[in-house]
Amino acid sequence: VLSFDPLFENTLAHHWTLGWQRLLPHRIFLSAIYVGSRSLNLQRQKELNIFVRNPSLGFGQIRNMRLFSQYDNVRLFESTGKGLYNGLQWKVTRYLSDNLAFDVSYTWSKTFDDGSTVFRNSLVTEPWSYSDFDRRNLLAATWFYQIRLPRKVAQKIPWAQSWRISGIWRLHSGLPLDIRQNEDSSFSFSYVGRPDLVGDYRKVDPGKEHKFVLDGGREVVGRFAFDPTVFQPVVPKNFNERRLGTLGRNVVRMHGFQQWDLRIGRQLATSETTSMDFGIDLLNVFNNRNWAAPSTNVENPFFGIVRSEGLSRTLQLNLRFRF
After folding, report:
1. How would you label 200-239 residue by residue, b for 16+ Cβ within 10 Å and e otherwise?
2. Could you tell me if 33 and 17 are in contact, meaning their C-beta atoms sit under 8 angstroms apart?
3. Which of 9, 85, 181, 201 could form an S-S bond across to 193 if both were Cys, CB 3.0 to 4.6 Å?
4. SS3 (DSSP) at 216
5. Across-strand partners of 298?
């Protein structure tokens, strides 16, 4: 059963910036900008069919103890969510001079909200914490260089003249991982189920297989992104043991992302009105392994295991005809 608050269409956003810019020698432009943003009236969900203990039923029937026992979830979509972003953006740009140009930008930021994981009918209101899309550090660099050989050399080897080399380097810190369990262990029906954190969170290299011994002595081997043994599901056995897990929302993070792309190309004039562009694209030149997010449900048999990765080193040849 779903209820809707029409105010969710009235989302408000406030933005503010403060910047400093300066032109340096050698046609280099430097800028530093603080960017802030606050969002109000974001969509959240509230559970109306909450837990009400029935004295005539035992703990085994707790899943049926609700204010309206004939119904399951009764969600109210309301406009009470909020978000906050603060970021410092640095940028260095060198305009094309002496056949060289580059652009380097770095952003340090934090993003908080209490609703970025709320969508469809699967979740309820979340606590204030890091957003699902929060990336602390982002670095992006692009460059362009056109080869200009001395005239005497160019006359002897004309095919080596006018080649262009360009590239992109991207380096991002990891996104948060929201570790969960299937059931809300408080049985309030108002929260997402999350386990206990019983040790120090530790990342491991998914490029190698690791073996961990889980609860019950079960050994699991796989390409783990982190040590899964520090998370323990909360399983109450009576009414007095009902509680939320100690792990908060988006507390831990996954591995970061890095990729270098390179392009080498040359334009060939075929006539006064036509030309061809020949290029070689090298994607992920250094074959950095960028892992997909692992399973984040502690009750999933593949919990903590990475099952796919991003683009490996790739070579592309292309030819473009211009007229």
Report:
1. eeeebebeeebebeeeeeeebebbbbbbbebbbbbeeeee
2. yes
3. 181
4. helix
5. none
Beta carbons of 43 and 126 less than 8 angstroms apart: no
pLDDT digits (tens, 9 = 90+) for 135-192: 999 999 999 998 877 777 666 776 667 789 999 999 999 999 999 999 999 999 888 8
Q: Is the dihedral of CA 69, 70, 72, 75 positive or negative?
A: negative
Residues sharing a CB contact under 8 Å with residue 119, sequence separation 6 or more, in sequence order: none
Helix (H, G, I), strand (E, B) or coil at 20: strand
Residues comprising the chain, all counted: 323
Which residues, in sequence order, are CB contacts of 101 under 8 Å at separation 6+? 94, 95, 143, 144, 145
Inter-CA distances, 71 with 74, 117, 176, Å = 7, 24, 34
- Please determine, for residue 119, whether its predicted confidence score (pLDDT) is greater than 80: no
Full-model pTM: 0.82
Residue 219 and residue 252 in contact, taking contact as beta carbons nearer than 8 Å: no
**142, 103 Cβ separation under 8 angstroms:** yes
Give the span between the Cα atoms of 279 and 288, in whole angstroms.
22
Query: In which region does residue 206 sit, left (phi positive, over 0), alpha (psi from -120 to 50) or beta (all else)?
Result: alpha
Residue with tokens 């400093």: 20
The DSSP 8-state label assigned to residue 294 in this structure reads P
pLDDT digits (tens, 9 = 90+) for 237-270: 999 999 999 999 999 999 999 999 999 998 777 7
Burial label for 305, CB within 10 Å (0-12, 13-18, 19+), is buried
Distance of alpha carbon 12 from alpha carbon 10, whole angstroms? 6
Q: Kindly give the residue spans of alpha helices, DSSP state H, lying in 132-270.
A: 151-156
Residue 286 and residue 261 in contact, taking contact as beta carbons nearer than 8 Å: no
Angstrom distance (rounded) from CA 103 to CA 162:
21
